[in-house]
Amino acid sequence: MPPTFDDLLIRARSLAPDGRRAVLGIAGSPGAGKTTLAERLVRALNADGEPWVAHVPMDGFHLADVELERLGLRDRKGAPQTFDAFGYAALLRRLRVQGDDEVVYAPGFERVLEQPIAGAIAVSPSARLVVTEGNYLLLGTGAWGRVRAEVDEVWFCEIDEEERLRRLVARHVAFGKSYEEAVAWVRRSDQRNAELVAASRGRADLVVCEDAL
Q1: How many CB atoms lie within 10 A of CB 199?
Q2: To which H or E segment does residue 5 belong?
Q3: Measured torsion, CA atoms of residues 201, 203, 26, 2, in degrees rounded to the nearest 10
Q4: Predicted TM-score (pTM) of this structure
Q5: Which domains does the chain have, with CATH numbers?
Q6: What whole-number distance in Å separates Cα of residue 208 and Cα of residue 146?
Q7: How far apart are CA 20 and CA 16, in angstroms?
Q8: How far apart are the C-alpha atoms of 137 and 149, rounded to whole Å?
Q9: How many C-beta neighbours within 10 Å does residue 201 have?
Q10: What are phi and psi of 41, to 5 degrees?
């Protein structure tokens, strides 16, 4: 039987039983509901009292458009090679080993500008669980293998494919693309990335279906 949201809360709480900081990863194809699940988990877990869970998305490690232009990768934005995966792995490692007396700052991602923003997310010393989410946590090749090594568990979000594509097109439209531009981008770029992500599903510790999102 697929896990319910309550099952996920119990499992997430169990990752940091002794007070050490743990990292929970949520992977999945573009539009699969990773951010929705991460935000819902963080809200529910922090509702217990003093906030002890932080949310640090992978999207802050997008390369800036100016660098993508230099590399000739602007039309592949969102593909694995358009992220600073080594930097992401280094941040996750720092989060895992950081002492209890320092705030760790992580980059965020501004959806309207479609650009990373340095120092946008503060992870307080009281955070015992960090929830991170992104497409490529399970790739296991190159720098992405370092990312997986810094995450205690990775869950894989999976929803109906037609619904995933509908959500993805709607997201692009919401952030400024025309419907035709959004469909073209999904077909040209996002879908190639989705196929790569789907192939990593078998490496997940848990598959989370749409009913639990």
Answers
A1: 11
A2: helix 5-13
A3: 70
A4: 0.90
A5: 5-208 (3.40.50.300)
A6: 23
A7: 6
A8: 10
A9: 15
A10: -60, -50
32-36, 117-121, 138-142, 161-165: which has the minimum mean pLDDT? 161-165
Strands 104-110, 115-123: pairing kind? antiparallel
Contact 201, 151 (CB under 8 A): no
Alpha-carbon distance of 182 to 19, in angstroms, equals 44
Say how far residue 204 (Cα) sits from the centre of its chain.
14
> 3-class secondary structure for 166-203?
HHHHHHHHHCCCCHHHHHHHHHHHHHHHHHHHHCCHHH
**What confidence score (pLDDT) does residue 37 get?**
95
pLDDT digits (tens, 9 = 90+) for 177-209: 888 888 887 788 788 888 989 999 999 999 998
**Helices first, then strands: H and E counts in the chain:** 8, 7
Q: What tokens appear for 44 in the block?
A: 């529910």
Tell me the C-alpha distance between 91 and 137, whole Å: 14
Q: What is the pLDDT of residues 96-128, one digit of tens each?
A: 886 567 899 999 998 878 899 999 999 999 999
Contact 150, 132 (CB under 8 A): no
